[in-house]
Amino acid sequence: MLERGSNPESAPNTIALNRIRNAEPEISETNLLNGAKLISVVHPDAVQTSVGVIFDAGSRRENPGEHGQMHFFEHLPPGSFRITSGGTDLQRLSQARSWDSNIMVTKEMLSIALTGPDFDGEQMLSAVTAMLNPESDALKAIFDIEKTRIINEIIQRSCAQQEIRDALFSTLFMKDTGYDHPIGGTPQEVQGYTFEQVMEAGRRLLTPDNATFIVSGKPDFTGQVFKAFESASLPGSGPRPSGLPELRSNTTVDDLPQVNAAIAPPIPGLEVCAWLPGLNKGNSKEHLALEVATGLLSGHVSSELSHRQGVTYGAGAIPRQYPENGYVEIGFNTDPRNGPNIPALLAKTLEEFPATITPEKVAEYYSASRNYWYQNAQDITSFDVLAELARRPQSFVIPVSTKLEKLQEISAEDVRAAAEQFFNPEKLRLGYLGSPPALQAAGAVPNVTLPFA
């Protein structure tokens, strides 16, 4: 167990969290696969999440940059590579022009590249084990998917060796889509490097000797990661505290009064999660109508929280999707800063659905989605790459351009039908999602029990 505030420079393969509200993180480590380590980092005020793998590439630029929105990582191992579950982290990195220490591959991209749509934590472990093999094609698959300018930028800034930096920065000629240049970078920057050279440079950086698994903050991999890592003795394991009701696989919104009573006053960092059966066909009209309805629902709750408590964090506007079982999750934070009765607010909001769905609200949602994707697409992922991915059999990515076109076809009645179908006590299930510090202090298991129970 590393002491609070341990200096990452003095401990190999460790990280330190950025100090938030002058509170120090707790860091512990456990040896795992192929000599790698599982690093668990918990923070009392963590409201974001990161679960992933760190690869120490053995190089470091002087004075690594900082960015105000990078909640967790004040330092990373020298030249580290990080695979994370947090898509929002990738978005933040696209804004963090001075941040020079990691390369991000989102959970969704990782699941496509390594395991296909039937993704779970144990498969992730197998996939990562495969990645640690220099002969594996997994790295190639990842880079084949993440052809983005931000990846190029992060690689450029994090690789001290000019040869490797230039090779990785030149990232992939998109032979499969007919493009003759990579996204980001100019012909002058990429001349002289082949796809194979880029892959070889990457493989030289990723070896079992420098791999570190991490779990930090509030695990949005939920039960998947914690099930996979049960044998690693994660901190926080233990019986659920007596103050919380046991959530069974048949726990529904009808149980909200019990849930609400059991967590008043709320446990800091705890979320009540609504799980609803989703649709695996990510580009179908029905799925997008459900996504719009979910976005309107969670956005309404977030708005209520903002007005009542003066905070902006409450619920994700876009549901997190678990393609292996078709479930969709909406998280509602019960942090005291957000008020003590979030489950009650959720119940009240559900009562209002779908009656409050109007053409105007659907149009507003479409406009917001359109603006978001267009503003961020150049930093996150290319329209063309997503469109190409959507044509591949194993892909469940919704291509941005196709998504925007289909959104225009969705009416308020479509959204209302989706809400009526899914937002009801028989369909909706409840779960917990909490940040480990709060739940660990209460003796709780720091992950939800649904729909994996």
What key phrases describe this protein's structure?
13% strand, five-stranded mixed sheet, 2 domains, alpha+beta, globular, 17 helices, Cytochrome Bc1 Complex, Chain A, domain 1, 453 residues, disordered N terminus, single chain, four-stranded antiparallel sheet
Topology:
Blueprint: E1 16-17, E2 26-31, E3 37-42, E4 49-55, E5 73-75, E6 81-84, H1 87-95, H2 107-115, H3 121-131, H4 138-145, H5 149-158, H6 162-169, H7 187-190, H8 195-205, E7 211-217, H9 223-228, H10 256-262, E8 270-277, H11 285-309, E9 320-322, E10 327-333, H12 342-352, H13 359-380, H14 383-390, H15 400-409, H16 412-422, E11 429-434, H17 436-441
Parallel strand pairs: 3-7
Antiparallel strand pairs: 1-5, 2-3, 4-6, 4-7, 8-10, 8-11, 9-10
Helix pairs in contact: 2-4, 5-6, 6-8, 10-12, 11-12, 11-13, 11-16, 13-15
- The number of helices is 17
Shape: globular
Q: How many beta-strand elements?
A: 11
The averaged pLDDT comes out at 46
Counting structural domains, the number is: 2
Q: Radius of gyration, Cα only, in angstroms?
A: 22 Å
Structural class: alpha+beta
Q: Strand fraction band? A: 5-15%
Biggest beta sheet summary? 5 strands, mixed
Order of helices and strands: EEEEEEHHHHHHHHEHHEHEEHHHHHEH
Tell me the strand order in the biggest sheet: 2-3-7-4-6
